[in-house]
Amino acid sequence: MTTLQIKQLGYQIDQQWLWQGLNFTLHENDWVTIIGQSGGGKSTLLKVLAALQDAETGDILLDGVAISDIPVGEYRQRVSYAAQSAQLFGQTVRENLDLPFTVRQLTPDEDRQIAGLEQMQLDASYLDKAVTELSGGQRQRIGVLRNLLFMPKVLLLDEISTGLDAETKAVIWAYIRQLQAETHPIILSVTHDEGEIAQANQVFVLEHGQGGFQDDRSN
């Protein structure tokens, strides 16, 4: 069973603590929604968990192993980070959806890519569409799908629905909920969306440099 342990985690900016002393343990199938004031370090926490930034203090353990002891490439296949505005590269959607296969030294599976597009309510023709032709909502669907073609052990979602229309939000969240039901990853999601917060399974409040679960559950 997958576990993600956070022990006495702290992060500083210009010698000021953004947050410190964070402690919690998450298990397979946990879905935690992180809320708090703007500028409180919610996105920074996800980036630290994704090994995109380094904490000043504390430890992060995945399945009991410190992330510093896990090769970066391997860790980022097991812990996947999706940002608010998807950064697509190259010329076409296909290039972006080939990436999860090539980093694993696998031949891209077009059937799997098309099935994913259809889950995002985009038809097979999008595979060879130029990224410059995509709307903002379509870009976000492709960017999130890139993270989901190989479901990670831990999925980090950094305000992925901000600025999207209601239909696009519904499509993305429905697919993520389906995949969690099938594969049971740990999910941590940062949001300011009141509807998403209302539907959250567990809420972690990060404010004033401290963090804790809204239900005061034991860590």
Quick overview:
By secondary structure, the chain is of the alpha/beta class.
Key traits:
about 220 residues; Rossmann fold
Q: Largest sheet, if any?
A: 6 strands, mixed
Architecture (CATH level 2) name = 3-Layer(aba) Sandwich
What is the highest CATH level, the class?
Alpha Beta
CATH H-level superfamily title: P-loop containing nucleotide triphosphate hydrolases
Strand order of the largest sheet: 6-7-8-3-9-10
Strand content: 25-35%
Number of strands: 10
Tell me the structural class: alpha/beta
What does this structure look like?
The protein has one domain: Rossmann fold (3-Layer(aba) Sandwich). Helix 3 runs parallel beside helix 5 (136-148). The strands form two sheets. A six-stranded mixed β-sheet has the order 6-7-8-3-9-10, with helices on both faces. A four-stranded antiparallel β-sheet has the order 2-1-4-5, with helices on one face. With 219 residues, it is an alpha/beta fold. It has helices at 42-49, 72-78, 93-102, 110-119, 136-148, 166-183, 194-198; strands at residues 3-13, 16-27, 31-35, 57-62, 65-66, 79-82, 154-158, 186-190, 202-207, 210-213. It is built from seven helices and ten strands. 33% of the residues are buried.
